[in-house]
Specification:
single chain, seven-stranded parallel sheet
Length: 374
């Protein structure tokens, strides 16, 4: 699976598992808002809910009630329905703002907007930097987005997106952005996250590295230590989203991190110092990894190899609106603790990265090649 396909599948299928015990403290805001969260039980949703409650807001969620039932606080009004035509629970209700987390289909935005228009003051759409496709340089918010080339975007289904190998994911997200802006002109906030990481990330992107480094020994590390990487802790994204709502912000914002440029060498050193100082990194160049059929992003998560434009996404607009980031060591420790809390069967089947056996094979081949050279 190539990097592009994997980033789209990862972005589209990251689901929640268990709540982390990491507290989210915040002062109460002067004015309480009524916030409707479409979704709310997946990856970032529960963090949005907790942070919003901590700041004195009233929160309603709308979902099918099938993901982690009973997890949310009793303070949350939990509305049950389905984005595929079962929206009755949203009718004749009013909220100050709606946050749309799970949508990748324009029809979902249209159908919800038809019910909510006139009853919601603002619409927040959580998009993705995948709308930029394969940019040649780090994109800012004005960069062109992918074009949809199908027959009818309003007839697309989740099943069809999967069947396409998620090739339509970015284009449909871009169309969904425009659908939100059409129904709520001048009242839409679009947030385009990059790689979202941390506790609850069921795709095992990023998670691979704390888990692997914690195991110790010789660790296969890809490419050059200077290769760019970007990611954002789900909790930082969720908290900033709520703060943007409080400030009544609109427009488009890329949301990834950290604030200053980070290379994979710095990321791995940070995880190592937080978890397993005696782990040994063996850097293997991209040419050899290609020969070994080791792919950027899927086999070596976070790392994009030579195709690093998305790992250089411009976030200056978000930084100007006080997007903040918790320390890498905290994200690494919390992610590892969450992963170790999962059932053993789940831990035994990670969803990204090389298996221990495959990693050992590639390392043995690399080390043999180095010995031959010397």
């Amino acid at each position: 699976m190539d990097r592009r396909r994997f980033i789209k599948i990862s972005a589209a299928t990251a689901l929640a598992s268990r709540a982390t015990s990491t507290p989210l403290f915040a002062e109460k805001t002067p004015k309480s808002m009524r916030i409707l969260i479409l979704g709310g039980t997946g990856f970032t949703g529960p963090y949005q809910v907790r942070y919003a409650l901590s700041r004195g807001h009233k929160v309603s969620t709308f979902n099918r009630g099938k993901t982690h039932p009973g997890e949310l606080s009793a303070e949350v009004e939990q509305l049950v329905g389905d984005r595929n035509g079962k929206l009755d629970a949203l009718k004749d209700r009013q909220w100050d703002v709606v946050i749309d987390n799970p949508t990748m289909l324009p029809a979902w935005v249209r159908d919800a907007a038809q019910v909510l228009k006139g009853n919601v003051d603002r619409y927040v759409f959580i998009s993705t930097i995948s709308v930029y496709g394969e940019p040649k340089q780090g994109p800012d918010e004005n960069a062109p987005t992918e074009k949809y080339e199908g027959a009818d975007p309003y007839k697309e289904t989740i099943e069809a997106v999967r069947a396409s190998g998620f090739k339509t994911y970015g284009p449909l997200k871009a169309l969904s952005e425009r659908e939100a802006e059409k129904w709520f002109p001048g009242k839409t906030l679009i947030i385009r996250p990059g790689l979202i990481v941390g506790p609850r990330d069921e795709s095992d992107r990023f998670t691979y590295w704390p888990v692997r480094i914690d195991r110790g020994g010789e660790v296969l590390t890809p490419g050059s230590p200077g290769n760019a990487v970007q990611f954002i802790d789900a909790r930082d994204l969720a908290e900033w989203t709520i703060r943007m709502v409080e400030m009544r912000e609109t427009g488009i914002y890329n949301a990834t991190g950290p604030a200053k440029a980070l290379a994979i060498g710095g990321m791995l050193d940070g995880i190592k110092s937080a978890l397993k100082p005696d782990a040994k990194f063996t850097w293997v160049n991209e040419e050899f990894l290609t020969e070994q059929k080791v792919q950027p992003w899927s086999d070596m998560p976070v790392w994009t190899g030579k195709e690093d434009a998305l790992a250089r996404t411009n976030i200056s607009r978000a930084l100007s609106k006080d997007l903040t980031f918790r320390p890498l060591d905290g994200t690494a420790r919390d992610t590892l603790a969450w992963f170790k809390s999962l059932p053993q069967e789940r831990q035994s089947h990670p969803k990204a990265g090389l298996s221990p056996q495959r990693e050992a094979e590639v390392l043995a081949a690399w080390n043999k090649k180095q010995m031959t050279k010397s």
